[in-house]
Amino acid sequence: MSRRVVITGLGVVAPNGVGVPAFLNAIRNGVSGIRYDQTYKDLHFNCQVAGMPEFDWGRLKNYVSEITFHGLQGHALGYGIMAALDAWTDAGNLIGGKETSWDTGCVFGSSVPECEVVKKIYNRVDAGEAKKLGSRVIEQMMNSSITAYISGRLGLGNRIIATSAACATGAQAILMGYEYIRQGTAGRMVVGSSEHVDPYIFGAFDSMRILSRKFNHAPEKASRPMSQSAGGFVPGSGAGAMVLEDLELALARGARIYAELLGGSCNSGGQRNGGSMTSPASPGVIRCITNAVTSAGIDPLAIDLISGHLTATAADTIEIQNWCLGLGRNGRNFPPVNSLKSMIGHSLSAAGSIESVAAVLQIAHQFIHPNINLDDPNPEILRQIDPDCLPVKAVEKELKTVAKANFGFGDVNACLIFSKYN
Amino acid sequence: MERRAILDELKKVLYPYTEDKNGLENIDENTNLVKDLKINSANLVDIIIDAEAKYNIEIDFDSAEKIVTVGDCINAIAEKIN
Fold first, then answer.
1. Does residue A116 contact residue A198 with C-beta atoms inside 8 Å?
2. Bridge partner list, A188
3. Domains in chain A: how many in total?
4. Domain end (from A225, A259, A293)
5. Is A120's Cβ below 8 Å from some Cβ in B?
6. Which of A84, A135, A225, B56 lies in the 20 to 30 Å Cα band around A309?
7. Do B43 and A67 touch (CB under 8 A)?
8. Are residues A155 and A248 in the same domain?
9. Exposure of B11 by Cβ count < 10 A (0-12 exposed, 13-18 middle, 19+ buried)?
């Protein structure tokens, strides 16, 4: 019989809260982490707001050795290390053991190397000073740098995989970790993703004209998924992480169990049938949702909450339609749906992991977080689902099963089914 | 600059690269950077770069390769600044 996989540790670095207690408090109360930043105005960006974690870089001294800390650069690395190590200790584990943990691996994703750090390399090399780059550059530039730091600090000896699938990265990484445990490859997996949207990546998205630009004066209102006044997404940054564990191992050591990961699916629409580099093909999304439900072994009617991708672009309406078709539910029969992006913006690679941490916390604490800024739901969405499906205030509710999906550039999809552990 | 003065300055350069702060306090010219101070050999490059910046000197690759002990470091620096 296949193994069951449970979540025993959580870590998060989010624009509206660093650390699980602060983040839980923020999502319960609909606290926005979106702020105006003069830098973006000075750079002539259309969008001048972002969700950046209030991150104290010096705190990393408590997470890595003093020698590693010296010369460590790159926000995404810092966010990822903190989230992953927090998840590890949250699961009741110690950091810094002498032995290799052969049954524990790591799947952690990110999307792009940090351009600000890369720029320093360009400048040095172009000035003929490559000699001065030192030994610490490569380890922080490799796509696997984040998994290298995490696994090194924790002494992990199973599969160590760095992943990248644009905005589906986080959910995909979690699913991969789940699969390694299910198939018996690993007993525990540290999974998650991180992202830092620096001005160079920000500028490139700004140029695509898909960012919010009409709420620079009111940053907390700038991220408006599913609303008629949604005008693009707000870039966010941060990291989310969790420890996935074979249920038997978790029970044997008396671990606290937040929730169970029942199943999931990851696929691509193949950039056919309406899919493209930047748009998900509906047949792929619907198939991804259906396969996730099948893999979880549940009835679609059992889903109590959808944690959508829902970025606040024109794609929101199509996403709701795809959920309706994928689950065979609509109107009043549709479950509540929320988008964490209304509070923290869209943190690209990190979105799936931060939103999954939120999904697990909602199950563990039995509530549905509000959709903020949803005072004018898009009529196209209301044509498909009942207004009651769009909570604008936190709802205390018996929550058994949550579907969480993310869709990324390249037409890649990932859907996870989390459940209350019984 | 006297060798003793260079050695005292060198302690500051080495500080971020070793966890053995007591050992660092008591180094002498025979102290082996990797064996005694447990400095990661990859970081020797960074120590040389930091020393170059501190004294505004250039230590060529061949001289750098000979650095094993604190005394070797002092030799490489003294040769350039004196």
1. yes
2. A104, A245
3. 2
4. A259
5. no
6. A84
7. yes
8. yes
9. middle
Residues A234 and A311 in one domain: no
ipTM summary value:
0.87
Give the residue from chain B lying closest to A70, CA to CA. B16
**A135: which chain B residues are within 8 Å (Cβ-Cβ)?**
42-43, 45-46
The residues with which A107 forms a beta bridge, in sequence order, are A161, A191
A207: number of Cβ within 10 Å = 11
CATH number at residue A15: 3.40.47.10
Residue A201 and residue A304 in one domain: no
CB–CB of B49 and A65 under 8 A?
A: no
Taking only the tens of pLDDT, chain A with its 422 residues reads 579 999 999 999 999 999 999 999 999 999 999 999 999 999 999 999 999 999 999 999 999 999 999 989 999 999 999 999 999 999 999 998 899 999 999 999 999 888 888 999 999 999 999 999 999 999 999 999 999 999 999 999 999 999 999 999 999 999 999 999 999 999 999 999 999 999 999 999 999 999 999 999 999 999 999 999 999 999 999 999 999 999 999 999 999 999 999 999 999 999 999 999 999 999 999 999 999 999 999 999 999 999 999 999 999 999 999 999 999 999 999 999 999 999 999 999 999 999 999 999 999 999 999 999 999 999 999 999 999 999 999 999 999 999 999 999 999 999 999 999 99
| pTM for this predicted structure | 0.96
DSSP A114-172: -HHHHHHHHHHHHTT-GGGS-TTHHHHHSTTHHHHHHHHHHTB-S-EEEE-BTBTHHHH
Answer yes or no: do A131 and A91 share one domain: yes
Q: Domain limits at A289?
A: 265-419
Q: Are residues A273 and A253 in the same domain?
A: no
In this structure, CATH architecture of domain B3-81: Orthogonal Bundle (1.10)
Q: Say yes or no: A135 contacts chain B, CB-CB below 8 A.
A: yes
To which H or E segment does residue A240 belong? strand A238-246
